[in-house]
Amino acid sequence: MAKEEMNKDLPAEIHEYLSAFQNSIGPVDDMLATMMSISGNELLQKLDPLEQAKEDLVSASTLNSMFWVCLAPPGVNPKEHPVKQELERIRVYMNRVKEITDKGKAAKLDRCAASRFIKNACWVPKPKNESKVASKGKSKK
């Protein structure tokens, strides 16, 4: 009943924002429950080092972002708090991990194939001592 009274007191647009917020929290809650069901050590043992780094960075970023949000209600300016520097540091490391990931996905150069392309594309002059008659008699393949 208290919930129905609260809904009547709220303007319609605020009610829509709260409903959207509640709908977006559901998947986050499900994901968090899944992550909490496995211990951190078990999770990290199943991942390769790059995935471990990604998981650590996401966790650190999430915690620091939540702390950033919690600074505003008491009146602390988060832009002047050391948490801003920490978030920037995490962002730099996330960019490094992204570069490493992108580098692994980049196309590799096949040196043998490239040298064949270049060799076949270049014009090679005929030797001076080869006669015209000898070149006419050769069969083409």
UniProtKB/TrEMBL annotation:
Plays a role in the recruitment of the exosome to pre-rRNA to mediate the 3'-5' end processing of the 5.8S rRNA. Belongs to the C1D family. Keywords: Cytoplasm, DNA-binding, Nucleus, RNA-binding, rRNA processing. Monomer and homodimer. Its main location: cytoplasm. GO terms for biological process: maturation of 5.8S rRNA; regulation of gene expression. It is found in: Cytoplasm; Nucleus, Nucleolus. This is Nuclear nucleic acid-binding protein C1D. GO terms for molecular function: DNA binding; RNA binding. GO terms for cellular component: cytoplasm; exosome (RNase complex); nucleolus. InterPro entries: Exosome-assoc_fac/DNA_repair, Sas10/Utp3/C1D. Pfam families: Sas10_Utp3.
